[in-house]
Design a protein that fits this description.
heterodimer; A: mainly alpha; two-stranded antiparallel ribbon; 4 strands; 74% helix; globular; B: ABC transporter involved in vitamin B12 uptake, BtuC; Rossmann fold; 4-stranded antiparallel beta sheet
């Protein structure tokens, strides 16, 4: 049996991974909830953010600027996608929307590949994040703790945006009934643009935060896309609390099962998703009847 | 409308006297299926076969090697199954790599380990295992539709990738894959055929592709295939017309998995190596992209798409400075194609051919025969006491959270009766109706159909028992013709809610054409039989909506605002139609048009705020002060008429 301290440390690890996944999935889920579009380019936006952050970091040596650069780049790319293409797709069947976002994802990743090459890059931990944190008896890498803090803080900001502002009210009303919101004279187009941008930004921002923990490669977005899909299927597509709960569950599964058999931790994730699909197909926090 | 001749005395289910002359050939000519009919029906198979034969002599001129052509055929075979799933049934899966990899690795493992030395047997086992995997994944992912389905198939596809690398590593070689798959060797007992790489391998794979194509086309042309297209067009209506669509979806998912498994097995044999990235997300993605580029819903689209993809790849590699960007170029081409050119290459060709055909006024001769046949009605269930109500609701209630939409309504319809249900907007009519039809579960109370409790058995089972509903908002199969639309309910009656007759030709279905023609004639759409529904004027769509319910052969019919949105002239036609079909059928009609209602209905039930306010003959209802108050706003709610 693993020791208590290892268990605690893994529990913590799971939380860190989980909140990051929650952040990425939140982007996916608010876009779906408001626009009704599943953004298959979400993983690619994560990659775009991570690489933009990498460039800014190596130019300025400031990780904070890197975070800003990554978030802004993915925001701008998101806005361009919405304005340039997605707008034409709102009236088309979901399959078309999936296909076009998937195609956009390929283009983004290939642009990254053509700029940075296919080799993997590593991002060093910022100076203020090096070292080890002591939490009681628990010893933990400082940056991971900070990453957890970043993710949690951003989720709180998003929560505030969604539940305490008028934009959030519109977005949540849009999730319930976007046609009605439109009828009420609210400029849905502008809201859509903003939401797509924020969703894209969440992915890119998470990409930068994650970059010192993982190695960068143009293909890393695939894994992110898959994981965020698992998270929203578990949590319920379109549900903000669902994305957070799903993210934490997924993070803990990955982390805790790897104590016993690392090879199976990924597979466990899918088994949990299968169980959710069998017993609660709409997701833990999803509403019945929403497809 | 010319064919519809309203006559209030027209009795029974017999089609109204038609001013239309019977077009087309005599029935005997159609049934006899002369040889040229066979050729016409099998033309695509013949063309594909000839192209496969000619390819080795023509395509190398364009710089295509035997290996490239073989690879294209493997992708094309993989794509045949996927096109049945996506192009025909509308299920966009992003996890097909799971089955491609499963089939490939099982076959490669069996051959390299020596457990099954026989090549064809190993391929067969690989295909069967892939199909079994498809059954499990399909069962899970098909619990949700649309985007959920796309997302969960993608995720499960990735799960197989992890499994290959972890749980099954000792069998699959993990990241190394399985090398040294022996070349095909087919022992026929008396002679052993060795197949070397190059053109012999092309022929070997081409045979599989051709067989795969013939089977896929038979599926498309079968009654089973007709139901798949209905599911793609309007899954909810397909279900309401009596098809257990979940079974069909799962079946086609398994078929697609089997195609993937076979293609994967051939890949390992062809390359003498089974690569782990057969399981990768990129493999599923490549399949989707190729299918869309080539044209979904055409069977050959994926093959064209694979040709474009692989040819482009090889071509761009030749050009220095560009080779590295080939996938970027491909991505851009893909996005442009999806945005502006919806039907891909094969779709474009088909559209062109269809346009040519239309101008040449080709009419489907055999299908237009036997117009004068009668539309059958499902015989009432045995053991039903005469005089007992055909449809009965006992205290049915529907609550949505705190809101009670329908509260404790009891209702009883006797044999042959036409009952009207009226009530102001928001009275709960539609909810009440949906509960009667089995579309909506009751919170409390029960529904009986000819004495049998049908509460909660679902709309498909209810339809199979002999009750059907037409909708307030048209629920048609827009991309199919009137004839193809009408076929869907007729097939549900003749085949039951689910049947695996995928290799049977639609033209062999006994009595199908007669019943379809009778239903079309009954609603006066004979002149539009081969028109796409999306091109029909609204009034005719409305009649087809009724026609679909009739064509189920139901003996109890529920009409939800059959006159909704119709002009005065069309209203007269539809009212006459409803009157004319009453023999052998009992009906419940929800309608706002009071004049029509008082003309049609023998008794009227009034719903108000979810409760039954009154019930009686039209005259009684007219005189009822509570009803007057409800409609004139004497109670607490104002309702615009």
């Amino acid at each position: 049996m693993p020791s208590m301290s290892l268990f605690l440390s893994q529990l913590f690890n799971g939380l860190a991974t989980g909140l990051l996944l929650a952040l990425i999935s939140t982007g996916l889920t608010i876009i779906y909830g408001t626009l009704g579009v599943v953004n298959f380019a979400h993983g690619a936006l994560f990659v775009v953010g991570a690489y933009a952050g990498y460039t800014a970091y190596s130019l300025t040596d400031s990780f904070m600027l890197a975070i800003a650069a990554g978030a802004l780049t993915s925001l701008v790319v998101g806005l361009i996608i919405e304005r340039g293409l997605m707008r034409m797709y709102y009236g088309r069947p979901p399959e078309d929307q999936i296909l076009v976002t998937f195609g956009i994802g390929i283009i983004l990743v290939e642009i990254v590949r053509s700029i940075y090459g296919g080799v993997s890059l590593s991002v060093s931990t910022p100076e203020w994040g090096q070292g080890i944190a002591h939490i009681g008896s628990l010893i933990y890498p400082l940056y991971r703790l900070q990453a957890l803090g970043f993710a949690a803080a951003t989720l709180l900001i998003l929560y505030y945006l969604l539940y305490r502002t008028s934009l959030g009210l519109i977005v949540r009303a849009g999730i319930e009934d976007s046609q009605m919101v439109n009828v009420l004279g609210i400029n849905v187009k502008r809201t859509f643009l903003l939401v797509f941008g924020i969703g894209a930004m969440a992915a890119g921002y998470a990409g930068v935060i994650d970059s010192p923990i993982v190695t960068l490669a143009p293909d890393m977005g695939n894994r992110i896309l898959v994981d965020s899909f698992v998270v929203v299927v578990i949590g319920g597509v379109g549900s903000f609390p669902g994305a957070i709960i799903g993210g934490i569950i997924a993070g803990e599964i990955l982390s805790l099962t790897s104590m016993f058999n690392p090879a199976y931790s990924d597979v466990m994730l899918f088994i949990v998703m299968a169980l959710v699909l069998i017993f609660r197909p709409q997701g833990l926090m999803g509403q019945e009847g929403r497809e | 409308m010319s064919s519809h001749n309203p006559s209030s005395t027209a009795a029974g289910a017999a089609p109204l006297a038609s001013s239309n002359t019977v077009r087309g050939a005599s029935p005997s000519a159609a049934r006899g299926a002369p040889p040229n009919t066979f050729v016409r029906r099998q033309l695509p198979e013949l063309v594909v076969g000839l192209c496969l034969l000619a390819a080795p002599f023509v395509l190398p001129q364009l710089g295509m090697s035997a290996d490239l052509l073989t690879r294209i055929l493997i992708w094309g075979l993989f794509g045949l199954g996927f096109d049945l799933l996506f192009g025909y049934t509308g299920l966009l899966s992003f996890g097909q790599a799971a089955f491609y990899g499963t089939g490939g690795f099982v076959t490669a493992y069996l051959l390299t380990s020596g457990i099954v030395p026989h090549m064809l047997l190993a391929l067969l086992i690989g295909t069967v295992v892939a199909a079994a995997a498809g059954l499990v994944i399909g069962y899970l992912t098909l619990r949700r539709t649309g985007i959920y389905f796309a997302m969960s198939t993608l995720a499960f596809g990735e799960m197989f990738y992890f499994l290959e690398n972890s749980a099954f590593k000792s069998y699959t070689g993990g990241e190394n894959g399985i090398a040294g798959v022996p070349p095909p060797e087919i022992a026929l007992g008396f002679v052993t055929i060795n197949i070397s790489s190059g053109w012999p391998m092309y022929w070997f794979v081409a045979i599989f592709f051709f067989l795969g194509y013939v089977v896929a086309r038979r599926i498309v042309k079968s009654p089973f295939g007709a139901v798949l297209k209905a599911i793609r067009g309007n899954p909810r209506r397909a279900m309401a017309l009596g098809h257990a669509i979940q079974n069909y979806k799962l079946t086609v998912f398994v078929i697609a998995a089997a195609y993937g498994g076979l293609a994967g097995g051939l890949l390992g044999v062809f390359q003498a190596y089974m690569p782990p990235d057969a399981f990768a997300l990129d493999t599923s993605a490549q399949l989707v992209i190729q299918t869309v580029m080539g044209g979904a819903g055409t069977l050959l689209g994926p093959l064209f798409g694979a040709t474009i993809w692989l040819y482009l790849y090889e071509g761009l590699q030749q050009i220095s400075n560009i080779g590295a960007y080939w996938k970027l170029i491909l991505g851009i081409v893909f996005v442009v194609l999806v945005t502006v050119f919806r039907h891909g290459v094969a779709g474009g060709v088909l559209d062109f051919v269809k346009r040519r055909r239309k101008t040449s006024k080709e009419v489907d001769l055999e299908a237009n025969s036997d117009i004068m046949a009668q539309l059958d009605i499902v015989p009432p269930i045995d053991g039903h006491a005469s005089g007992a109500p055909v449809l009965e609701a006992r205290g049915i209630t529907k609550q949505y959270g705190g809101l009670t939409a329908v509260s404790d309504v009891s209702f009883s319809l006797s044999e042959g009766e036409i009952r009207g249900v009226i009530g102001p907007n928001g009275a709960g009519k539609s909810t009440f109706f949906a509960m009667l039809a089995g579309e909506l579960a009751t919170t409390r109370g029960q529904v009986f159909f000819r004495g049998q409790d049908i509460t909660g058995i679902g709309v498909t089972a209810v339809c199979q028992m002999g009750m059907s509903k037409s909708y307030q908002i048209n629920q048609l199969f827009e991309s199919l013709t009137v004839r193809q639309n009408t076929m869907i309910p007729v097939l549900a009656r003749s085949r039951g809610k689910y049947r695996v007759d995928m290799l049977r030709g639609l033209h062999h279905a006994a009595g199908l054409d007669e019943q379809v023609n009778a239903a079309i004639e009954l609603v006066g759409l004979t002149h539009q039989a081969d028109t796409l529904v999306s091109e029909l004027p609204y009034g005719e769509k409305r009649r087809l909506e009724i026609g679909l319910a009739l064509a189920t052969g139901a003996n109890v019919l529920l009409f939800d605002e059959p006159l909704a949105g119709l002009g005065p002239e069309e209203r007269v036609h539809v009212v006459a139609l409803l009157k004319s079909i009453r023999k052998g059928r009992s009906m419940v009609i929800v309608e706002h048009d009071m004049d029509a209602m008082f003309e049609l209905a023998e008794r009227i039930t009034v719903l108000y705020e979810g409760r039954k306010l009154a019930e009686g003959t039209p005259d009684e209802i007219r005189m009822n002060p509570a009803v007057q108050a409800a409609y004139l706003g004497g109670m607490d709610e104002h309702e615009p008429a």
